[in-house]
Amino acid sequence: MAVAAVGFAFVVLPLVGLLRQVAWSQLGADLTTPQARDALRLSLVCSVSATVLAVVLGLPLAWVLARVEFPGRRVARALVLLPMVLPPVVAGVGLFYAFGRDGLVGEYLYRWFGVQLTFSTAGAILAETFVALPFFVITAEAALRNLDRRYEDAALTLGTPRRTVVRRVTLPLVRPALVAGAALAWARALGEFGATITFAGNIQGRTQTVPLAVYLLLESRPQVAIGLSVVLVAVSVAVLALLRDRWWGGS
Amino acid sequence: MSLEAAVALTVGMQAIDASLDVAAGETIALLGPNGAGKTTVLRALAGLQPIGQGSIVLDGIVLDDGGRTWVPPERRAVGFVFQDAALFPHLDARDNVAFGVRARGGSRAEARRVAAEWLDRFGLAERATTSAVQLSGGEAQRVALARALAVRPRLLLLDEPLAALDQQVRADVRRDLRTHLDAHTGMRVLVTHDPIDAAVLADRIVVIERGCVVQTGTLGEITEQPRSQWIAELVGTNLLVGDAHGDRVRVDGGFEVVVPDSGFGPVHLTIHPHSVGLAPTRPVGSARNAWPTTVEQISELGGRARVRLQGPVSLTAEVTADAVRDLGLGPGSSVWASVKATDISVCPR
């Protein structure tokens, strides 16, 4: 019991500590400073774009991992999930040498299309997508794998073309899992720090998302940093609430 | 208008090799114990499981020949009723039934009209807008049948359609099902492990064990002369497998049984339990077969007792409960069992 209480306190105390420091009357003003507004706007744009990308790229990937037998599937699955455990800074370094101006792909992107991802908003989106993708894939893949195949079989025997089966049976049935996976991916993208700062840099209005701004402002303007932190806490709580049916299981 | 199927395939560890023919208007029951491969045969007919060898020919059209030709399930005129109904949980009863009509290019209005007709026919009109997950087991099974029939399949496949239902509902749904099956003009293949379902619903029974067809016939034919241990136990008859040499049959274990018919080669012997006599000592009399046994189990019902015997030949005897008491029988007691040669029927296998 005592150890459990210590464990619980350990989880809760940082939150209490943070909330104690908030100057609630100043919160509105702190969050509307130009730097805070830029960070909030940018975080919204980047995290939503990253979530959309994670869903667009992740759904076919989850489908193949769940439904298609091929040699090396286990290895492929492990590789896809790697960004979940990889230190984000390392992810940023990897992204730099893949999509940076001298990178594996980045060199050609720059030479042929004049596209430079480093130090750009697109780069920040890319970094967030990289770390968020596995959260969506793992959730979607589990749902697709565990779905009772008889529903799809039933639709087929009723003469339904395969694409229509996907659209009218498979996707509606796994939709709760897809929403949960997207919410997880979004929350992860929103909090992304290491990969973004390493790959995209820390430029206000371009790549300085809320976590980066919090880090930078904690020295110079702590009240703004704390205000932005409170926003992230609120968002996290909201995501938990959204996932409540899935994980809290009504208890 | 017929189905001719020779299905051979291996799923996991199980090899299946079964043939069946179904005529128009006929219902066939695939009867067998759990895990015999019945459902796999059904899935092969539906195109949900490609076959390895053989062929499936429906109305003269090759659906699967184990090689080049394979018509996918969505292009076969085949309906499938799944065990536990497998209704789409995100749709209501009406949209479940309408699903196939929509999928085959019908308009939403037409699909709903057809669905309403079918639900009405099944006495489910007022459950039309009930979510599939809120239907009772019996209702769900009827909606599943309506869903399959609404696209007018030439061949209707039913996988244990009554297994998920409790006893009372089961009798009602079984009777309804017979009526609806009779109204369907195509062919029906039903999978069940319950001989009563098979007897009520099917015109002909195909017994499948360990992936192979062991017997085909009406329920009467099958229970009279069972060709498998499973059926024999099910109907309470003793079934022995052996090789005939004139009036002797050497059964498994090397023991010889005296029989009336002369003949040679592999045979089945069936002995009705009421033909088995029990005595405390070796009987002297007309019985040609007698052997010492040990009582394994006794079950009484009314004035009768079924006595399971272990010995050189394991048998079930049916005697009166009084006889069990007079002989002082209980599990573990020794008793002589005897059978007259003329009470043993022999058929070649």
**In total, how many domains does the architecture of chain A comprise?**
1
Number of strands of chain A: 0
Q: Total helix count of chain A?
A: 13
CATH architecture of chain A: Orthogonal Bundle
Order of helices and strands of chain A: HHHHHHHHHHHHH
Query: Gyration radius of chain B, to the nearest Å?
Result: 25 Å
Q: How far do the termini of chain A sit from each other?
A: 21 Å
Give the N-to-C terminal Cα separation of chain B: 32 Å
Structural class of chain A: mainly alpha
Any overview of this molecule?
Chain A is an all-alpha fold and 251 residues long. Chain A has a single domain (32-89, 119-241), classed as MetI-like (MetI-like fold, Orthogonal Bundle). In chain A, 78% of the residues lie in helices and 0% in strands. Chain A contains 13 helices and no strands. In chain A, helix 3 (34-67) runs parallel beside helix 7, helix 4 (73-85) packs across helix 7 and helix 7 packs across helix 9. The radius of gyration of chain A is 21 Å and the shape is globular. The model of chain A has no long low-confidence stretch (mean pLDDT 91). Chain B is an alpha+beta fold and 349 residues long. Chain B has two domains: 2-87 and 135-230, P-loop containing nucleotide triphosphate hydrolases (Rossmann fold); 236-348, RNA polymerase II/Efflux pump adaptor protein, barrel-sandwich hybrid domain (OB fold (Dihydrolipoamide Acetyltransferase, E2P), Beta Barrel). In chain B, helix 4 (137-149) packs parallel to helix 5 (167-183). The longest helix of chain B is centred in the middle third of the chain and has 17 residues, at 167-183.
